[in-house]
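Dissemination and training. As part of the outreach component of the grant, students in the summer workshop were shown how a complex can be specified as a set of sequence lines and then modelled as a single object. The example used during the hands-on session is reproduced here so that future cohorts can follow it. Participants entered these lines:
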Amino acid sequence: MTYNPETKMVGEGVKFERIRRITGYLVGTVDRFNDGKRAEERDRVKHTPVGQ
Amino acid sequence: MLTSIIKRDGRVVIYDRNKIKMAILKAMEASGSTDFDKADQVTEAVESHFNNQNMKNTPTVEEIQDQVEHELMASGLDNVAKRYILYRASRNTIRERKSKLVKVFDEITFSDALDSDVKRENANIDGDTPMGAMLKYGSESAKDYFLKFLLSPDQAEAHREGYIHIHDFDFYALTMTCCQIDLIKLFKGGFSTGHGFLREPNDIQSYSALACIAIQSNQNDQHGGQSIVNFDYALADGVRKTYKKLYLKNIAKVCDVLGEKVSYDQLKEISAAITEKCGAMPKITPDETYVALELEELKKLVKDPAVAEKAQQFALTRTEEETDKATYQAMEAFIHNLNTMHSRAGAQTPFSSINYGMDTSDEGRMVMKNVMLATDAGLGHGETPIFPIQIFRVKEGINYNPGERNYDLFQLAIKVSAKRLFPNFSFQDAPYNLKYYNPDDVRTEIGYMGCRTRVVANTYDPNNEITYGRGNLSFTSINLPRLAIEAKGDEDLFYRNLKKYIDLCVKQLMDRFAIQKKKRVRNFPFLMGQGVWIDSDKLDIDDEVGEVIKHGTLSVGFIGLAETLTALYGKHHGESEEAQKKGLEIIGFMRRILDEYSERYKLNFSLLATPAEGLSGRFVRIDKKRFGEIKGVTDKEYYTNSFHIPVAYEISAYDKINLEAPYHALTNAGHITYVELDGDVSQNLEAFEAVVRCMKEAGIGYGAINHPVDRDPVCGYNGIIGDVCPRCGRRDCEGVPLEKLQRLGLYKHLNAATLGQCGNQLEEADRIPNRI
Ligand SMILES: [Zn+2]
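and obtained this result:
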């Protein structure tokens, strides 16, 4: 884990992991996806749950 | 005076009149009339043209060639001119293609994966590592070669122009896609990986380890993901062996403590003899006959008969819990291994999937419970496991309704999936899955591989309509929106072209099949050499695999039904009932043609709801360039996945499921429906379950629910993170004061002096408290 002794701060520059499913597989970050897949993930809207 | 010329790459070289003359002579030869004098005259005419121009600029190769064409025609040598033009054109294509490959190589060599679509094509290969880059060079050159030399001109053109997409093209002439691995058959008597022989595993730990090795080994023989079709039934055998071992050890232990000398080996012998006699062995639900016979034998071994009773009682009460623990550890190791192992030149984590859900034995249930609990707990620091894809088979009478034997496991599957995104759900009762199901033959249970592939029907061999040991050979997808755009509202034209491209795909799949057929068992040391693929155990190492791979499927896929309907009829199937009717007509049309081909060739042609993969952006990029931005068609960076309702379209889960379900029945090569839920669904399992049940009732074959799953590596928080982490309060990429983390009970053993710059084990262990 990154630690900066001067500011006594931990985790500078460390990203949150956001697990998403893209073309069926899970990924920790969308950075490694090609542009079409990233855009598809960005555009998704949520669906109203069943029975509501 | 013509003394020098500029080459294509910009270099200036000395003019050589022989080069012009040779080119003209070649063209003359091709047209069947070589005339040296005429060639000389034309060459001189070209030179004098440039000399007369009193040129300030040195001419380029292209300008010189233009002039040669001009002079040939001026001299009445029309046929020669034609040949010369053709020759020029063909040289240009070769040169252009060569440079395209070079450009790709440049990209692999010099650009970072973050900026390179080539490197990010398969998100599971790290294109920035040396091995990953090496794979890319190989893959790109292979594609170039196959395109130029193995495809017929019409296939090459259709692929290049983006009418069709031949998947896994870099493996075109090398192997097949995937196989549903039957571990029970594989483990029987042990197997060889090509790097040594592994004995038949004899406890749950080794079952788990060998399951990983099987996935890894097969990954090297095929280009697709690897799937275990019977994870529950197969690993249950490992639980049985572990139970028996621990049971006998417990008896030995108690005897030892109570001063009797009875060895484990003695007990093993006794047990084997009893099993021989009555067919039963020690197991979670004890067999009364076995227990009685065993007690008799134990009493003969000990001085004090009470010790025999005590020892057996102890073993009967304690062994289940110990076995359960061992099974959990084995499942934990299995998941951990699949997320860290590498294969294919060390650059790719194998794509793996496992199917389970319907084994009702105590042991199978123990496997399923623990693989899900291990998934729920996550990896070392609570990370969500990326692999394997887990698929829970839902079946009425077995796990769907309260009171059914595996209903508890179905409930657990819902809970785990609501936290970890896996398992997905497959539905055995969907009519097109149920029709193959024979309760007396587990090999007829439905299987899904990875992101959706499904193989069960068998036109080649109707006696083997099973999932075990079979898989997809190859697949090619059609760019449906392109055909719709080009039809300009003319439905007949659309269907005519659709038929044309299905025929073309079938022809191409057959050509590829002809190459695959000629491979020999030795080309697939694991898949065929170890009998993983159905009937391959009947072949010798030098036999061709042609016959046995006929059990596999040849699939035609499609992408962008929503955009297709919009282009043809103005609306997609989420927006209008009429469009839904038209959508089903289109997909039904495709399926019918493929069924006809199956019958005609006695091969398994099937229709795939293509998972987009690398082509989600490719098709639309080409089409946007060609046709401009068409609203609802080419105005995004991707075409919608197969028959899905567009992801950006507002719709209820219920409607989406019911609109997509009928397409599952048509896409026999595989399909999946996704529902996106908002918020922390792990706090609302009823809503989650309602979606799964809705899928089942609607006739979905395979489905999954997406929801946000975030994690902060700094404090270990798992859940939904908006802009700010709910536990430590930091924003993305921000630091947190060490002192604040320590107040939260994190990093408590550490201070500024011991906190590693890039992580040390103590500090990491300190971050585990995930169960809040
Ligand atoms: Zn945090």
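The beta strands of chain A are 3-4, 9-10, 17-22, 25-27. Students were then asked to discuss how this feature might be tested experimentally.
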